TrEMBL record:
This is PhnD/SsuA/transferrin family substrate-binding protein. It comes from the Bacteria. InterPro entries: Solute-binding_3/MltF_N (IPR001638), SsuA/THI5 (IPR015168). Residues 1-20 form the signal peptide. Belongs to the bacterial solute-binding protein SsuA/TauA family. It comes from Streptomyces triticiradicis. Keywords: Signal. Residues 45-266 form the Solute-binding protein family 3/N-terminal domain. It holds the Pfam family NMT1.
Amino acid sequence: MKHKAVAASFLLLLPLTACGGTAAAGGDGSTVTVTIGYQSKTINTVTAGTLLRSLGLFEKELGALHDGHTYKVDWQDYATGAPITAQMTAGKIDIGSMGDFPLLINAARGKQLGRPTHLVSVTGYNLRGGLNTIVTAPDSRIDSLADLKGKKVSTSIGSAADGTLVRALRRAGVDPDKGIGKLNQQPAVGASALSAGSVDALSQFVAWPGLLAYQGKAKALYDGAQLDLPTFHGVTVREDFAEKRPAVLEAFLKAQAKTTDHLDAHPVSAAEKVAEATGLPAEVVYLYNGAHGISTFDPAVKPRLVSALKQDVSILRSAKLTGDVDVDAFVDDRYVRKALGAAYAERLAASPPPAASEVWTKGARGTRTFKSPKELLGHLAGHKAGIRAAYVPDATTGTLWFADRAVWVADGERLLPFVAPATAKAYTAGHPGAHVITYADALRRAS
């Protein structure tokens, strides 16, 4: 996907007063354009982007201001966070959403260029880091990070996926700078390179690894949740915009919260709506954004996420992408606290839902949850036709994955799924008698 933005505007012809983004040229100043930068295919940001736009909730909140202005919302779609930051620091985007590493670059660039920005809310997160995955070609013989020595690996430098790659390689004793041939590529370019065989592995963020696995074009090598470090996406705003138009920012955050509630209440239809808007398979969207998906959505700025952001600074600094970043000065949850009122404390204390095995049957309005992966397999064995997708959580990390793409382990009567070979091997090493089996064998044993 190119850096070029795809923009669409929605005009609300409602009487309003002085507040907001950029006054429309040639008018009397009563029309205010609010420009939103988002990443449609980075589906962890849908509550501040794709789904929010589809539901029209921001426009509804703006229409309820009655402050003497007419508001026009300009939605601009990008492939990554970098161009959103460039446009924000140029004063051309007011509110943007991106991942944790790009957020830090956003903070650094804003301060450097005299256009400070602030993290004001969170979109999707995973407390263990499961949103990023390293994958290889389906027929690759690479089955550990150590095997990547001397190999070509595609990632997007400065992204959370690159951060996962660097940390994972260091833990495996591989120098991320000299031990591999790292290629800095956009996600779509890296995906094509993996399919063409010009790279040996791909480290990317949601939803690329899941998409490639679903399409049969890749298999997981490393589950980012093995790092056990939170990763998330969030909303950033220009400081001058927030100070000049706090009511508009509050309207955005209220709309984001309502979009989050909609996603939680209607995960299947939300996945289908996002799929329709992005061209991604709904089954892939649901893997991340479903009722038990890899991502949890909540606008609250949790201390654990802020702490993780501080740990990310050293990775970007070592890559010479930023200097020191004052995370405490960058984070500002005043606006979301005001927008959500008494509900903010409840959201702040909320925990992710427990992982579960699910089946999505064709034509069904919802999914069916099972008590264990083995029960799910038993169902699949008896219903080979009509299954749209089946999901199982990694037995040790909890990361959801497609049942037919998982690494299965038999441990006595138990059938346990794992995202990647490494987590499966770690389990079998600590459980005598446990061994890796094929998916077909797992189905047979469950039936």
